[in-house]
Amino acid sequence: MTTFLIRRLIQMVLVTIVAAVISYGLLYVQPGGPIDVLLAERQNSGANRINEADIQRVMQRFELDLAVPVRFSRWLIGWPKGPIFGSVGADWVVGCATPGQVRLRYPDGRVEIVEEGCEKTVTLADLEGRKVSGGVVFGDFGESQVMLRGRPVTDLIWSRLPYTLYLMGGSTLLAILLAVPLGVYSAVKQYSRFDYIVTTIAFIGTSVPSFVFGIFFILLFSVLAQRAGLPYLPPGDAVGVRDYTIPLIGMVEAGSFLDRFLRVLMPCGVLTIISLAGWSRFVRGSMLEVLQQDYVRTARAKGVREQVVILKHALRNSLIPFVTLLAGVLVTIFSGALITEAVFNWPGIGRLFVDALSRNDYNVAMAILFINVILLLLGYLITDVLYTIVDPRIRLS
Amino acid sequence: MTTTSTALPHDEADQRPSESQMAIVLRRFRKHKIAMISIGVLAFFLLLAILAPYIAPYPRDTPNLAGRTLPPFSVDRDGGFHLLGTDHLGRDYLTRLLYASRTSLGTAIFATVIASSIGIVLGMLAGYFGGWVDIAISRTLEVVASFPTLPILLILSSVAVQNINAIPIPGFLNAFMSWAFAVTERESRIIFMIIVVLALLGWTGTCRLMRGMVLSVRENVYIESSRALGASNIRIMARHVFPNALPPMIVDFTLSVNGFLVAESAISVLGFGIQDPTPTWGNMVNFAQSFMFQHPWMPLIPTMPILLCSMAVNYIGDGLRDALDPHQRA
Amino acid sequence: MTTAPHRSTDPSQEILRVTGLKTHFFTDEGVVQAVDGIDIVLHRGETLGIVGESGSGKSVTSLSILRLVSRPGRVVAGTVFFDGVDLLTLNDEEMRTIRGNRISMIFQQPTTALNPVFRVGDQIIETLEIHQGLKGEEASGRCRELLAMVGLPDPNRRMKQYPHELSGGQCQRVMIAMALACNPELLIADEPTTALDVTIQAQILDLMRALREKINTSIILITHDMGVVAEMADSVAVMYAGQIVEYADVRSLFTDPKHPYTQGLLNSMPMLGHVRDELAVIPGTVPSLINPPSGCRFASRCSQRFEACDRDPAMLELAEGRRVRCWLYAEKR
Fold first, then answer.
1. Which of A16, A144, B293, C264 sits between 20 and 30 A of C331, alpha carbons compared?
2. Contact with chain A for residue B167, Cβ under 8 A
3. Is the confidence at residue B218, as pLDDT, over 60?
4. How far apart are CA A280 and CA A267, in angstroms?
């Protein structure tokens, strides 16, 4: 067990680093990455054209003047902050502040300026005093570049996390609590009308994309209900900004518990239905398989009450594969459902990610992605450990 | 011998679905009524997609600022009839929907073809040669599969869309894409990028399936026997692995189309992916969302084909699985 | 061979009487007539062997007696009188108090018949709790006794083990301990040794014989192995395609088999010292039970077939307790 955990942790660290390199490369290094976009944006919006000094400042801010490995290392573990051990390598060149320019004159008269060499280099000593992240690995994801200019990314994530947690936590819990009994009952009563209805609804639930559910819910419970003068649900956001009146319910004060409750109903409903559909199908399938096993027949032959056969002998076994599903839950609870949060304008982590991406706030997007990967890996680990608890046949080695 | 798994063929005669087996499959499939209806639904949308440039009543992109967000069955000031109304720029909604079927379905199908090809080839290599080939492919697969799919998809597609010229696309390919999707070559670059992104993330399932298939078929004695007779590796692959892997692959292919359709729509709904003016069902929903309170039909209209196609493909996959499942074969 | 049958005409000695039992499976392809009208009489202390190829309906017969046939199967006709009560008329609760208590069963695959997620001790104790209300130390004490009885050394340790930690033979001993926990009047053993190694098979059979003497329980032993029948059974029912084709005491069956199928089975039985093989020497296969051929079901494989075989043969009583379903003996009667 211990050796397994150690090996697994080493594996996780490796995968994390691979994930870090890949995602860093994706967002920072590739040509025409976020910096170009940012520069272009500022160029478009600002009335005054940007000059050399501006460019240098931006480059310094995003550390574009440093060599990629140095930049990556500073981003990942916040090192080197300056000369090593305070003095070693103070004059080591780690980047280039101003690239050298070579004027190429073609025979046909065209002139092209090509960057070549370096006019002004950056040394380790220059890094001293520069702002540096504490390292992504240590939970410092740097500062938000667009959304909350200059504020730490972690602040943004912390402010959004509670919304995602209670939305996702609620719907996940609800879905598990409903999916297990539905799946079990459906399997026990296979081919009954109940089973038929449950499987049909579950099938539809798993094939309808989540945003379709979201849009239908808003149209049905919000737009149409309001137009018909029926009690309706507020269509988006987690908290209202002004009071509103709902037929039969009356005045709802913005920010009150009722307001928050009404607003969470629809996104929570959508998420619950989606998970419920998949999970009840899963539980039903695994229950059906278990019910055909010899040991279930043995239990019946022993004279065990049918309910006990189902709820003790069969259910315990059929939930073993269900545990694997729960590995994914951890990550969804953190990252939220991107689509559902976006459709319902829910101020959670999922929408934060979407917003950050569409506004090119790459530090924020990176941080969320990074946490996502780590939680996913943790989820796998937890699954493995859970497996040994629920299934005595499995030993970790 | 009613419950033999697909991987372990019962006897020589069973290697290739014989005429009668095909008949059994077809008969079983026809019994699945909803799957039959679904084929009709899907065929209808495919037909619309193919005919889009010929039957569309208006030019795709011409805005009409005087006739914006018209409801269905309305007539604009110039006397033009709009069966499904117009969008926020006054473009005919039906026309855009028709072109969008071409983009959305086409993207899903192309992505499936590419992803399945990658998956089949890598899966076969991994399963057949084993050793370091298998290790390399399996590890890559694990890494790709362990990424959170949707966030990565969003990042890649946003990066791709902002850098459509970063990856050189051969001229003939782009010309083909622009012909296939009935769009300009600039637009087809974006479509191509999105297809590539989708396919790069979507091959793992097929690969895993194929690898498992090959592994179990390889264990079979008759591979040994045909090797003893001097059959080449390629021949063994073609003659033995493919026919056995075919039924689950067909189901996998069907469900992949659905997966890619939904994925493409989802990223478009979030505002990433294929961009206006190229219409897709997803980005039509994205724009319509801002108008859903004043004009509820706007999100509803492009949502319906996504819903219908997704359900149809799922039901077809379900029907195919039932029809091809050897566990049910009498 | 074995002891002479202790048969008695005294009906009070009769523990089980199955009459006209039919169990059908309602599948998409049609109705499978897995058990199609069988009659069995079993006396106290008697061991009845039911033999036949796989698919002949022996297992379904035993499950039907305990009413454990699962969907899409159903007992459609017949009576099963156990100690004077028709089991098929009992409600579920009454039936439950009989299962594992007065009638218990052991299965072919001991490793899969035990629930993998519970300790074997707990699985035995569960039976004791249900039927005898034993709890705590009392129950575990009895459990240790049972485990020792079936020859598992170190019962304390065994009790805490999970099925996957035991070998196939050990699992079958646990199953037997579980089955005998409540001193049942009838034990149904469905191919109890088939899945085990040859040496373990002999040990398990020895164990069952020893326990039979000790507890004096009646046994229905289902097997396809004529050797096992010869060693264990007092009387034998030979099943073919859902019907009993011959019923006899074990000595008569082996010395003077009547039905051509029984003759085939005995001919295919390996000689002493030869490798024991599956019963597949009779050419042909068991006919489909969805639309069984009219007439004698064995006719297509029978070497002594003649015109009469196109009609359904009736069960002929040749002598007391000696019955055969074959036209060959119709005139001779």
1. C264
2. no
3. yes
4. 20
